[in-house]
Amino acid sequence: MTTIFFATDVHGSEICWKKFINAGKFYNADILVLGGDMTGKALVPFIKDAQGKYKVNFLEEEMLLDEEGKLTMEKNISDRGYYPINVTDDEYDELNADSEKVEQLFVERVLLMAERWVKFADEKLAGTGIKCFVCPGNDDMFELDDVLASSKTITMSEGQILDLDGYYEMLSSGWSNPTPWDTHRECSEEELAAKIEAMASKISDIDRCVFNLHAPPFGSGLDEAPELDENLRPKYAGRSLIPVGSTAVRDAIMKYQPPLALTGHIHEGRGIKRMKKTFVVNPGSSYEQSTLLGAIIEMDKKGVKKYVLTSG
Amino acid sequence: MAQPGMFVRKASGLVRSWSVFDGFVYAFFSINLVTLGFFIFSFAPYIPEANLLTAIVISGIFIIFEVFVYALLVAVMPRAGGDYVWQSRILGGGIGFVLSVTGWAWILWHWVPLYGNMLAYNVFTPILGILSGWTGNTGLYNAASWFVTTNGFFVSSLVVIVLAFIYVSLGMSWYARIQKFCFYLGMAGMATMIIMMLASSRADFIAGFNQYATEFFAAGGGDVYQQILAASAEGGYAAAPINRIAIGASLALIPMVVFFNLWPNWGATLYGEVRGASDFKRNFWSMAAGLIATTILALIVLGLIARVIGWDFYNAANFTFYEGTSPFGVFPYPALLVSFLTDSPLLQMWLLISMSAWFFGWCGTVFLSSTRVIFAAAFDRILPEWMARVSTKYRSPVNALLVMAVGGVIVSAGMHYTENLETYALNSTVVIAVTYFGTTIAGAILPYKDPDLYNTSPIARLKIFGLPLITVTGAIFGIFLLFLFYMWTTDAVYGINEPVSYIYMAVLYGISIAIYYGSKMYRRKQGINLDEIHKSIPVE
To answer: What are the angstrom distances between the C-alpha of B101 and each of A247, A275, B172, B397, B425?
Structure first.
C-alpha cells in the first residue's frame, strides 16, 4: 500500500509550500506530489521614505510602516503568494516604465524563492524516506527547473516517467492547453497530446502508471472556470462556469485508462471524477488563504483503494 | 513620492472585476418580489395591526448587515463554496456539515412545494383562467381551477422539479443566460404593471375586477369587490391603514417578511484573484443593490396597489382567500388583479406572461445551491461518492439532482396531501436562518479564531470603533437572527412553535447528524479520519 499526498497550484505561497513539505508526516504519506504552478503572480514594492518609513500598497491598502511593521507585512505578502521587493522611488519609476525589467525581477524573485523552498524541503525531508515529486506548471518559468533539479530530496518530474514506489510509475507534464494569459508552458492541444503520447507510449504496464498532468480533462467537471469576456472579465458576475480543460488530457486518459490521474490548474475545479477505469482528482487551490488543499490517495496493486480531499 | 502599486505578471486566473450589475441581477432575483414577496405578503392580514411596508423597510435595514457578513467572508475566502466551507473551517467539520447540508439541501425539499404553489398561483391559474375567458374554452377554465387543488399543487411541484432538473443539467452558463433574459422580460412586465396602475383609478379597478372575476373566474356576479370586503369584515379582519407606520406592531411581521428578503446573499461568490477591498465593495454592492432596489420596488408596488386596488381590498382578498370565504376563488396575485384594468386580451396575456419570467428566472435556485453543497460534502467523504457523480454524456450531476428530486417529491406529497402547506411555510426560512446564524458566528469570530487568515485578507483594516467590521456587523445581524428565532418560537402565528413543525425540523437535522456520525464511523473503519480533513498542517 502506498499513500500519496497530492497538492497543486501553491502560486508562491510560502506557507502553503511549507505545509506541503510537512504534509508527508502529518498525513503519513509515503509520496508527495506537487502538481505545478509554484510561482507567485505579483511583486509588492516597499518604498523607503526620508524618515525611514516604508510605503507599501497591499490589497489596495496604502500603508506607511516602520521596520517592525515591514517585517510583518513582508511575511503576510509572502504567505499570500506575492513577492515583497525593496525599491527606491527612482527604481520604482524605472520598473513602472520597463516591463522587461519587471519580468527580470520576477525571475530573480522566483529563483530566490525556489532556492529557499528547496533548502526547506531538503532540511525537512532528508532521512524521512518520503519521496517528493514536483512538476512545474504552465505559470512557472523554465528557469525554475534547474533549481528544483538541484535539490537532494525533490525530484523534478517534468517530461519524465519516474518510479513512484517500486510498483507504480508516474509520467508528468505541467504543460497546459492555451489560456487567455499566454503563460510559460502552454501549447496547442495537438502539441500537448504529442507530449503526453511521447511518455505514455513508453509505459509498459498502464495499470501500474499514474498520470500527473497539470491541466484537467476537458468536460470532467474538474475544469469548470468562470466564463470570461474578451476583456478577461467574468461574465454574469462569475456565475457562468464553462469547461476549460484539455481535450488532449481527456483523450489520453480515455485511451490509456491509467488507475490514477493527478490534475490541477483550475482552482475552482476541486473534486474527483471517475473516467472509465481512471480515478481523476483535482484538489483545487486556496493558496491566497494560506490553506493547502490536497488529496490523500492510498493505492494498492489494484489501483486507488481510498482517497480523501483535505483542507489543511 | 510614488504611490506604489503591485507589479503583476501574466499568470492564470488574473481576471478583471466582474460587472456589479450582473451580481445585482442575481441578488435581485433571489429576493424575488413577485414570487416570494407576493406570496408572503398575502399572510400579512394575520398580523392585522402591523404595517407591511414598515416591516419590509426595517427588515431590509437589518439584512444589510447580513450582506456585510457575506461580502466580507467572500473577500477573505473566495471560491470557497460558501457556508459549508466557511463553517467547516472556522467552527469545525461537524457543525459545518449539519448546518449547511440541512440549510442548503434538505430544507430545499420543503421549498419545492412552496415553489409549486407559487407556480400555480402566479403562472398556471392566471394564464389559463384569462385564456379560458377569452376563448370560452371550459377545458382551460377547468385546468386553471384544477391547478389550485391539491392534485394541481402537487403537479405544479413536479413541474418545478423538472424545471430545476433541466436548469441544473444545462449548467450555470445556460442558467445565467436564461436568468438574464428573464430579468429583462420580468422587468418589462413589472414596468407594464406599474404603468397600468399609474394610468388607472380605483373605480377602473372595481369595474374591471367585478367584470373579469365574474366572467373569467366564476366569482358569482354582482359587486364581488364589496362582497370580499364584507366577507373579510365578517371574518373579523380589517386592514390597518397603509399610512400608519406602526413600528412596534410591525416588528411582529418581520419574521414573515424575511421569507422574501433574507436571501440577497444566495449566490455570494467571487472568482479570480482578490485584488483588495474593492472586491469586497463590489460584492457588497451587488447584493446590497439587489436588496435596496427590491425594497424600493416593493414599496412602490404596494403603494400603487393601495391607490388603485385598495389597501383594504388587497388585504381582505388575501385574508378571505386563506379563510375560504372569498367569492373570488383564486389567489389574489397582484399581476392578475392589475390585468383586470384592461380589456385588451393581448395586454392581459403580455402582462401575465412577462411577469411569469420572475418565476422562471428564479426557480432554478431551488436545486443549484443544493447540488453544490452535496458535491462538497461528498468530496469530503461525508456523503457517499455516488452523490457527486456527474453524467459524462450530459455533464449533469444526476445523482445529486435525484436526491433533491426524490426528497422534493416526498415532501411535496406530504405537504400537499396531509397538511395545510401554508401553516409550515416558514419552516423553510427558519432552517436556512439557522445556517446563516452559523455563518454569522463564524464571520464574527474569524479575526480571533484564525488571525493569520484574517490579517492577510483584504478586510483586515476595515474596522468600526477599533473592532473588526466583520465582528461588528456579524454581531448586529446575529442579534437580528436571535430576534427572529425568539419570535418564531414564541408566537403561534408563524406556524413554527407547534409539535409537528418541531418534529419536522428535528428530523431534518437528525438526518444530517446521523449521516455525519455514521460516515465518521464508517470512514474510520476504512482508515479515514474525517476530523483531519480540515485540520491545519503545521508550518514549521
So the answer is: 34, 27, 21, 17, 19
